[in-house]
Amino acid sequence: EDKVVQSPLSLVVHEGDTVTLNCSYEVTNFRSLLWYKQEKKAPTFLFMLTSSGIEKKSGRLSSILDKKELFSILNITATQTGDSAIYLCAGNAGNNRKLIWGLGTSLAVNP
Amino acid sequence: DGGITQSPKYLFRKEGQNVTLSCEQNLNHDAMYWYRQDPGQGLRLIYYSQIVNDFQKGDIAEGYSVSREKKESFPLTVTSAQKNPTAFYLCASSKLAGVGADTQYFGPGTRLTVL
Fold first, then answer.
1. How far is A101 from chain B (nearest CA, A)?
2. Are B22 and A85 contacting, i.e. CB atoms less than 8 angstroms apart?
3. Could you say which of B40, B58, B106 has the minimum Cβ distance to residue A42?
4. What residue in A sits closest to B107 (Cα-Cα)?
5. pLDDT higher than 80, residue A24
6. In 3D, which of A70, A89, A90, A82 has the Cα closest to residue A108?
7. B81-92 average pLDDT score
8. pLDDT value for A95
9. Which of A2, A20, A51, A62 suits a disulfide with A57, CB 3.0-4.6 Å?
10. What is the pLDDT of residue A97?
11. Residue B99: what pLDDT?
């Protein structure tokens, strides 16, 4: 059965800390892995990663995928209170194009 | 200004009533999806459609129905058969080919409360 597991489920840090969020996956016909940030409303897209292993970066956020170990990490450096959100990870099952979602990591950044 | 719109933002329904949630996109995406989100359970797929006049059940389709008569529109009906309809409903869309294919983009959501 396809599954995506995120850890930790929740995390509390202070502004300026660096955090690493984890996502392991077992997805049939894997095509890609996606990271999203969800604040009060809808998830917003952050990164798409493939088995190429190429790191993706955007400002203080970066992400990479290890195709051998079947996991991905999302790093956030110099965290700010605006980074407080739920971070979702999803694996793309290529055979039917559905996304297999993890439960998310709830990040709270305290001033 | 391309995007996905959902309406209404908040919806209250009495038990036993059917209700339809609207989802429209002007991104020219082929695929559209409906998810339900409950606290601690992540996103669960209700229905999805990859082409007009065709759709497939997701993991929790019971008590829901959809239609895809136009590429831009994918309304979801929550029927009285749905036992626990109170939830946050999210609509998403994606391309199926080309750069960025399969990246799903979400509407703002509809919060449904059954009284």
1. 6
2. no
3. B106
4. A42
5. yes
6. A82
7. 93
8. 67
9. A62
10. 73
11. 78
Taking CA–CA distances from A104, the nearest residue in chain B reads B42
Kindly report the CA angle at B6 between B1 and B11, in degrees rounded to 5?
150
Q: Does B103 touch chain A (CB under 8 A)?
A: yes
As given in the structure block, the two tokens for residue A72 are 């991905």
Whole-angstrom Cα distance, residue A40 to residue A84?
A: 10
- Amino acid, res. A49: L
Residues A58-86: tens digit of each pLDDT: 999 999 999 999 999 999 999 999 999 99
Burial label, B84 (beta-carbon count in 10 A; 0-12, 13-18, 19+)? exposed
Residue B2 clears pLDDT 80, i.e. is over it? no
The pair of three-digit structure tokens given for residue B53, joined into one six-digit string: 């006049």
Could you read off the pLDDT of A44-60 as tens digits, one per residue? 999 999 988 899 999 99
- Which residues contact residue B107 at a Cβ distance below 8 angstroms, ignoring those fewer than 6 apart? A42, B3, B4, B5, B6, B23, B25, B90, B91, B92
Angle ∠(A92,A26,B30) on CA atoms, nearest 5: 10
Nearest CA among A88, A77, A91, A83 for reference residue A33 = A91
- A93 band by pLDDT with thresholds 50, 70 and 90: confident
**A78: CB partners within 8 A, 6+ apart:** A16, A18, A60
| Chain B residues in contact with A98 (beta carbon < 8 A) | 45, 48, 58
Residue B105 near chain A (CB below 8 Å): yes
Residue A79 near residue A61, CB atoms below 8 Å? no
